Structure formats: structure tokens, C-alpha cells
Amino acid sequence: VRMCAPVGGLLAALAMVFGMAVAFAPKPRITWEHRDVHLEKFHEPDIFNYSVLLLSEDKTTLYVGAREAVFALSARNISEKQHEAYWKVSEDKKAKCAEKGKSRQTECLNYIRVLQPLGASALYVCGTNAFQPTCDHLNLTSFQFLGRSEDGKGRCPFDPAQSYTSVMVDGELYSGTSYNFLGSEPIISRNSSHSPLRTEYAIPWLNEPSFVFADVMRERPDGMDSGDDRVYFFFTEVSVEYEFVFKLMIPRVARVCKGDQGGLRTLQKKWTSFLKARLICSRPDSNLVFNVLQDVFVLRAPDLKEPCGRRASLAASARHGAGVRGCACGLRWGRGVRGAGCINREARAANFSSSLSLPDKTLQFVKDHPLMDSSVTPIDNRPRLIRSDVNYTQIVVDRTQALDGTFYDVMFVGTDRGTLHKAVSLENEAHIIEETWLFQDSEPVQTLLLNSEQGRRFVYAGSSSGVVQAPVAFCEKHATCEDCVLARDPYCAWSSDTKACMALHQTDSPSRDLTQQMSGDTSGCRDKTKESFRQHFFKHGGTAELKCSQKSNLARVVWKFQNKALEAEGPKYSLVGRRNLLIFNLSEGDSGVYQCLSEERLRNRTVLQVLAKHVLEVHVLPRTPAASTLPATRPEGDRALLRVSTEPTPGPPAQAPAGRGPVLGAAAPPPSPAPTGVSCKPKTVVPGPCLKFRSAVLLGKKQPAADFSEFEQSVKETLVEQGSFSQQNGGQPRPALDTGYETEQDTMASRVEDSGRLSHEPGGLSSKDQWSRRARS
After folding, report:
1. Nearest to 62, CA basis, from 80, 44, 74, 47
2. What is the pLDDT of residues 72-89, one digit of tens each?
């Protein structure tokens, strides 16, 4: 096979099940949870299986084929429904279907499987129709079915679980599916009023295929061949060239010619141009072979002048053990694979004007030998992307231009867990830019569709429960220039004017004001963020948690104290969630500046970012002997908040053992004082000072300061409770959460979220109510 430099073609994804571990599987740099990003959604009550998506020619309307329904949605916002049409199965057909052993509730329904444009004013729609496949025309003006009820046999599967694919070419439907009720007769056919054709029912032609994708490749009239347009079918079938104890699955690409008219005597009303070849996407050095095709995407270059401009990437899976591997693989082929069998300039010069004039010997050879010896191999003889522990199900690819003028093919690959991976090849390495959770219930992505309209680029994903619309990039989520550049997203660039990360296809800013480095070099970032820090006050012997927000899955968190790196695992420190720092048994020596840094490795260099800065002060307060902790008042605005504890103070703190994992919610209470002094714990006779204190609190009566002098020290102690207290921007002290170890605040305005902002829990008792309840008890 002669290979040529590709200028466009096909792109697909490979997914496989394989038992061996692979060290080269990349990890998504950022994971967006369902709650982190805004996604438009569409779901109609009691409608399921949104498995067919079609974009209108003007890219303004998204058509969705579901179970017994077709919807027209706004392509800009799919939550806006424009039209709907229902195609339900009659009760009589349901009963006949159930008599054949099928489920009345799940199988004997009408699953839309074919949704193709038929001119500018209609759609060609086919459904399983309770195992009686039927096709009809949907008028786009009235959005109603015309009731033609054409036989869908050979165009649409009988069983909704059977594989299928179709493409409309110049008003004629080319389809790959099963031809009978049992699904035992596979067929690739052209439904034409003047020249219908189909494959030969023979194992060498199709052997238990699972159809995946079909599309047409146009030939230029001024091309080297001046040949015919070709329709390609992608599928997986049982091998016919190898024999094993079990069925060996092989991915294939088959091709037929649009101008094929069948044979005159041999192959009458059968394809004379049918040829198929093996698709190879493998990692030979790791014995990884991806051999079950999942999905294919056609990436069309703006100019296909070169005759060898065909490129592909495939989706496949293989079962060998319990592990799962997902792969995206680029393929290409030259004239040897795609040039034979069609009537071209050379054939016409030999007086073969159509397939009807081909010799019987030639047609008999085609009939007996549909499999080509040549295979379609990966570009650069390697996969584009391999990911462990994931099964890729769908793929779309968008070609976009970066700020430096380089074009990148960005792959959007759906998984069986309801996530979307966005990946690009950088410096001969796969980089998964981000992973987005599309569906809350982790349901498989059944179909993907790309809308690459300039200025509004979206990816639509269909599942059993609904459709989700996601932008091609979440640039606005990168808050700093460093974050924007480190994402290495060809869609995103940092704008020095707006001080924001922006999508290139949505900005009018001149390139001189934008910063983008696909290498991840952050040295060009001149917009420095204001230094911010959080100030904390803690009690001696307590436990502190210092928070740090880290988005990158490729970076590790490094904590520094007074500019010296800390060993985060040990009796003194521990990490919570691999990010937040716990400090046990606080002492005066723990006071100082703590920094949380992100350390991210990019090929031969390391990038450090300061994510958070904390100033910690540990206070040692003198204590007076007391039997218990007494009420305390803490001003907050014009209110006086109270917290009274009548229980003895807990014992000394427990030390975190060395070598233990992260400790969540750990608290180290201070040692309890000797049980002396006056106690306000409810009893038969309440001391006078306690009654005065309670009266002042509940009745608002002002008492002389001397009346409370003996409790003054106790009040100050409870002001600094087991947690801590915080002071914000020089303001009044604020009440602490009862976390057992920490209170924090922002000392300066910062992009760092103040996760330690304090508030009372909803539904909880106020300090006054707690005091009153305990007094009554």
C-alpha cells in the first residue's frame, strides 16, 4: 500500500478490555465534577434512549431521535425545545411482538434508529416498530410524520439491541444492519428506486458483523483518478482469515462505489465494488491489540486536492482478563486500499463504462475474494491515546488553530461511565486536558455530536436518560495566567486586558494581548495575582487544618513552613485529601507562615505555583482553677453570642501516631484544670454569681462589672474555645465553628476561596437557647 501525506480523513477511537497493566496511560489533568461546570440538559418525561443525534445544515437545530419520539432543539441551548413528534406502536403490534417472546415493556416499542436529512424540508426516519422496522418522512415545517410507512427491512434493525449504521448520499440511503427477525443475516445495502444493491449473503463477505459507522468520501472531478464517490462502512466481525478455538474479532473498513450498478450475470443486484480491509491499531511493544471497533469520526480537511488524503482513528475493545483499556488511534491508507474496484478514467478508457460491462471472471474473483491482503495501519505506527481503566464508547474530533498558527486535532472521547475526555497530541505525547462528568448517574455515552460552528462550538452527548450540551472548553475556570497556560488547551489563551482566560474562538482581542504556550511555559505570564493570606489564631495544644485548593491531577502539593518543606506524614503533620495540612499539638513554635505550593512536572522541567498562604499564631492563655468552663460572650456586630458548657473540660490531646494516614476531623483538646472554684452546672442550689450572669444574658439587665469579676478569667478562656477564634481584616472576633480544631479567615481580598467562613448551622440552637435549656434541666 502506497502511503501519502494525509491532509484530512477519518478519526475514530479504540477501546479495549485487556488484563495487562500499562505504564504509558495518561491521566486527565483536571476533572470537572457534574456540579463544577454548567451544562445544558434536555430530558422529556417518560422518554428514554436518546441515541440518535443530527445537526441541521445551518447548524441552528439539533434533531434528537429517542424511543417513540423525535425532538427539535435549539443548537445554542438544547434546553429550549422547538418541536416534537411522537411515533408510538399500536397495541395490536405490541401484542404480536409479545407473542414472539419479546418484552412488551422494553422491546416491543419503536426505537428511532435512522435519522437522515432528505432535502431541506424533510427528515427520513426509521424505527424498530415492535420488531417490524418501518420508515417514514418527517415534515420539518409542520413537524409531523407524513404516514408513508415504508418497509424498513434492510434499512433499520428489527431488535433495538442490534447494531446499525446509515448515511444518506444524494437522496439514497446506504445502511448496514440485520435483514431478518433473528439478526442472523447481516447486510450492507443501498435503498434506491432505480438501482438497489446489497451484499452477498456469505461468510467471506460479512461474518457476524457489528456495524459502527458509515460515511461518504467525495472524489474531485479533476482528480488523478476522476473516479467515483465511495461509501465506507466500519464494523467489527468474526475473523475469516484466522481460526481459533474462540471467535476472534477483527475491526474492518469496507468500501462500495456510489456508481455501482451490480453485475450483468454474476452478482446481479449485488455489489461489484465491495472490498474490505483490516484495521490495525496496536501497541506491539506492549502486546496491546485493540480489535473491537466502538466508534469512528470523519475529520474533513478544507481542501482534499491530494488523492491520498485519507486518515482515520478507530475505537475498539478486546477481552483478555478484567482490566479495561481505552485507545484513540489514527489510521491512513493510499490508492492500493481505496483505488480498486470503482469505474475510473482508466476503466473507461478500456471500454468499461459501468459495472454491468465487467467480465464474469472479474466479478467471480470479486465475489470469492472480498478481503484485501493489505491492512490499514496507524499513523506513525502507534496509537494516539491509550488510557487505562476506561472503556471508550464514542468520539468526535475538532481541528482548531492555536495562537501560534499551529493546527491541533482535539479529540473528545466519551466513556461508559458518562465522562468526556478531551485530549490532544503534544510533542508526540498524549495529553488529556480535562475529564468532564456529563451525567449524574454515570450512564454510558451512547452518541456524540460536534457543532464546530465558528464562535459557538459545542459537544452534544446522548444517553439513555437525556442529552447534554457541553462547550468545547471551560477556559473561564482557569483563574490565573499560570493556570490558563498550564492547561495546554489550544482553545484557551490568557487576556492581559480582561485579566481572564478566554476561548480563542470567542475573543476579538489582538494576539499581542493574549498569552498561550502549548508547551506549558509560564514565563510569559506577566499578570501577577495579589498576594493573599489567611490569618489564624489557635489555642496551645489544639489542632489546626490549613486548606489548599488544587485542581491539577498531574501536580502534587508541597507544604512549606518558614520557606522550608514539611514532611506531611508523621506525628506532627498529616494530609487530608492529599491537599489540606493538619497540625497536631500546637505550640508556640508552630507560629509562622505556611505556604501550599503546586509542583507540576512538564517533560524536563518543573513548574511551581503558590496556591495558598497561611499565617498561624498560637496563643498560650493563663488559666485559673475552675471546675468547668463558664459562659462567655463574644461580640459580633451589635449582638452578643454565648456558648456555655457545663461539662468538665476533656483530657489531654491524643498524639497522631507516626506513619498513619490522613486524619479527618481530628481534635486535640487542652488538658482539663483542677475541679475548683464556682461551677454553674445546674444543681439544687445555683450560686448567686451564676444567677446574676444568667439574668444579664436573658433579661438584658446591665450589671456592674464587679459582680462578674470572679468569672472574668473563665469568660476569657471560653472566648478561645477548643476550636479557635479568628479576626478578619482587623475587625471584631468572630465565632468559631465547633470543628474541634480550627477557625480561619481572609486577611486580604483574594481569589482563594475562604473555606473557613463561619456561620451557625441551620436549625441549631443559639447560645442563649442552649443556656436556657440547660438551666431548665
Report:
1. 74
2. 999 999 999 999 999 999
What number of other Cβ atoms are within 10 A of residue 610's Cβ? Answer: 14
Q: Round to whole Å and give the CA distance between 199 and 193.
A: 17
- Contact predicate 318/19, CB 8 Å: no
User: H or E element: which one contains 482?
Assistant: helix 481-486
Give the CA-trace dihedral at 285, 287, 288, 291, to 10 degrees.
Answer: 130
Q: How confident is the model at residue 771 (pLDDT cuts 50, 70, 90)?
A: very low
Chain CA centroid to CA 356, Å: 51
Closest to 301 in 3D by CA, of 668, 656, 11: 11
Query: Which residue shows C-alpha cell 509542583?
Result: 599
Spatial contact of 374 and 337, defined as CB atoms under 8 Å apart: yes
Domain ranges of the chain: 9-49+160-471, 477-515
328 CA to centre of own chain: 16
* Band of residue 694 on the pLDDT scale cut at 50, 70, 90: low
Dist CA 326 CA 203 (whole Å):
29
Superfamily of domain 9-49+160-471: YVTN repeat-like/Quinoprotein amine dehydrogenase (2.130.10.10)
Counts of helices then strands in the chain (DSSP H, E): 8, 49
Convert the pLDDT of each residue in 479-500 to its tens digit. Answer: 999 999 999 999 999 998 889 9
The CA-based angle 309-312-316, given to 5 degrees, is: 165
Residue where the block lists cell 447486510? 187
What gap in Å lies between CA 414 and CA 436, rounded to an integer? 10
Length of the chain: 777
The CA angle 190-194-198, to the nearest 5 degrees, is 25
Band (512; pLDDT cuts 50, 70, 90): confident
On the 0-12 / 13-18 / 19+ scale of CB atoms within 10 A, 629 is buried
The full DSSP string for 83-137 is EEEE-PPPHHHHHHHHHTT--TTTTSS-BEEEEEE-SSSEEEEEE-TTTS-EEEE
Continuous segment of H or E residues that includes residue 347 = helix 345-349
Enumerate residues 6+ apart whose C-beta is below 8 A from 552.
29, 30, 486, 598, 600
Is the per-residue pLDDT at 628 higher than 60? no
- Give the other-Cβ count within 10 Å of 149's Cβ: 11
Three-state SS across 138-205? EECCCCEECCCCEECECCECCCCCCCCEEEEECCEEEEEEECCCCCCCEEEEEECCCCCEECCCCCCC
In what helix (H) or strand (E) does residue 385 lie, and over which residues does it extend?
strand 385-388
The three cell numbers of residue 652 are 489531654
Match 440518535 to its residue by C-alpha cell: 52
pLDDT digits (tens, 9 = 90+) for 223-250: 555 568 999 999 999 999 888 888 999 9
Element containing residue 486 per DSSP (H, E): helix 481-486
Cα 400 to Cα 398: distance, rounded to the nearest angstrom:
6
The three-class DSSP label of residue 619 is strand
53: which strand partners? 64
CATH fold label, 477-515:
ligand-binding face of the semaphorins, domain 2 (3.30.1680)
249 vs 237: CA distance, rounded Å: 6
Grid coordinates in use for 470? 457541553
All three cell numbers of 476 = 473561564
Q: What secondary structure letter does DSSP report for 708?
A: G
Fill in the amino acid letter for 159: D
pTM of this structure: 0.76
Q: Which residues contact 45 (CB under 8 A, 6 or more apart)?
A: none
Per-residue pLDDT reduced to its tens digit, 532-569: 788 888 888 899 999 998 899 999 999 999 988 888 77
